[in-house]
Amino acid sequence: AKVWVLKKHFQGFPKPSDFDLKKIELPSLQDGELLLESVFLSVDPYMRPYSQRDMKEGDVMIGTQVARIVESKNPAFAAGAFVVANSGWRSHFISDGKGLHLLPSSWPESLPKSLALGTVGMPGLTAYFGLFEVCKMKPGETVLVNAAAGAVGSVVGQLAKIGGCKVVGCAGSDDKVAYLKKIGFDEAFNYKTVTSLDEALSKASPDGYDCFFDNVGGEFSSIAINHMKKHGRIAVCGAISQYNDSVPQKGPYVQIPMIFKELRMEGFIVTSWNNRREEGQKALLKWVLEGKVKFHEQVTEGFENMPAAFIGMLRGENLGKAIVKV
Ligand code: NDP
To answer: Residue 248 phi/psi, 5° resolution?
Structure first.
């Protein structure tokens, strides 16, 4: 089996030399175990802060994959089936079956299995629970989302439309902005080229925003918070603008708008909704099949290109979900 390990803790932006590709021998299968082969692997922003907090140099990079069961000595899993596993950056691995999620046998042939890592997987569920449960979005409201053309953001915008809201998205390239308009965002702009973020936010919604789904944090958030309507709700989902900082950014100082606009701001982690995972996945799958939620994947070919796909995603090179196809 091939595995990618964290060779050196990242200093600032991750570099290819921070990773090491190793070969390991897998032991023979014991009763209750399965041999799995990764077919699609996910590269996600959380891997950057997680590696800093919870990994040692030499550890296998964490992550999720869609894997095919090559051989099974576990009666609950048949060879040939596909599962979503949380086994890190590994080409092959042995599992005892715990924590594996079988892809439903009804998974439509027309849909790529990689969607179980994106729109119908963890990022889609993040959008679903963040918007419906944390923001408590209601029909007729205005929703703002940043990193809007990414895995989570693109679903947030489309769910807001399904929920009868106006949605404003921002992203880091004109192509991404064009994509957002194509998939139904009411307003979209390129945050890298606007002369003033403040003015762009006012122009996109002169009355302000009821819900802000924040994927970015930092300076963007400190500006956006002043555009919230009274009793607005902010779902603090991610802070990708800060993950690569060696020195913590100053601020934002949120107290004044929080008080005078009587805002509610709540951080959340998608896995806290694991007990409702099935409900969320069912709804997302239905909307995808009905064409109400469209998806795009940025597919990098080759297990050996995992670090490049990860670094590219952090740099904003992905439209939709960043996936590696083995
Ligand atoms: P994306 O597919 O959105 O990829 C990351 C995107 O972030 C890039 O494409 C880039 O798009 C944008 N970006 C990178 N650097 C910056 C920056 N400095 N300022 C603004 N935008 C930047 O990733 P995901 O959809 O998987 O994740 C989005 C966010 O959601 C992340 O912060 C992630 O950590 C968080 N998250 C949180 C979860 C939770 O449970 N709380 C679960 C899943 C994700 P652009 O070109 O637009 O700059």
So the answer is: -60, 140
Residues 6+ apart with CB under 8 A from 178: none
Whether ipTM > 0.90 holds is yes
Predicted model pTM? 0.97
Q: Is the CB of 268 under 6 A from ligand 1?
A: yes
pLDDT tens-digit profile, the chain (326 residues): 999 999 999 999 999 999 999 999 999 999 999 999 999 999 999 999 999 999 999 999 999 999 999 999 999 999 999 999 999 999 999 999 999 999 977 789 999 999 999 999 999 999 999 999 999 999 999 999 999 999 999 999 999 999 999 999 999 999 999 999 999 999 999 999 999 999 999 999 999 999 999 999 999 999 999 999 999 999 999 999 999 998 888 877 788 999 999 999 999 999 999 999 999 999 999 999 999 999 999 999 999 999 999 999 999 999 999 999 99
CA 241 to ligand 1 centroid distance, Å:
8
CATH fold for the domain made of 2-118+295-325 = Quinone Oxidoreductase; Chain A, domain 1 (3.90.180)
Domain(s) labelled CATH 3.90.180.10 in the chain stretch across 2-118+295-325
- Choosing from 50, 152, 155, 216 the residue with most ligand 1 atoms within 8 A of its CB, the one to mutate for a pocket test is 152
φ/ψ bin of 173: left (φ > 0), alpha (ψ from -120 to 50), beta (otherwise): beta
Query: Which amino acid, residue 156?
Result: V
Say if domain 122-271 classifies as CATH 3.40.640.10.
no
Q: Which residues contact 260 (CB under 8 A, 6 or more apart)?
A: none
